[in-house]
Amino acid sequence: MILVGNAVVERNLAAGVESEIHVPIASDQDVVVARHKGRALATELGFSGRDTTLLATAISELARNIVSYAGRGEIVLRTTHNSDRPGVMVVARDKGPGIASIEQALREGYSTSGSLGLGLPGVRRLVDEFEIVSEFGEGTTVTVRKWKG
What we know:
Blueprint: E1 2-4, E2 7-12, E3 17-25, H1 28-44, H2 49-70, E4 73-82, E5 85-94, H3 102-105, H4 119-126, E6 129-135, E7 139-147
Antiparallel strand pairs: 1-2, 2-3, 3-4, 4-5, 5-7, 6-7
Helix pairs in contact: 1-2, 2-4
């Protein structure tokens, strides 16, 4: 493992490539770091500018949710493959209060913070695969994948 700023990067030494990046999330600056790391990973994999921006935006939304609702957590970025297409998997996890109703949280316009309520529904629209697991009082894990187009 290598520490790069606040990000812990695990290297697959045999392949010589970064395989997993951990970014602790506790502040707005960490949101910026996670977004930057995700953008760099997508660019390295040859994603189009549009898809790179969509992924970076999704990462930013997930990280902001961690700061806003849980206070702290982490974003994990991994390279992945589907058949012959490369992709990026993002895991956003926290040990915050959890989500009382995932169904409501995924509804357009729903917000417990007085915001526009575009966070999770917006993330779901930006990525190719979306999964959320949350236990009220235990925390939330959102896993998304974006495939190279």
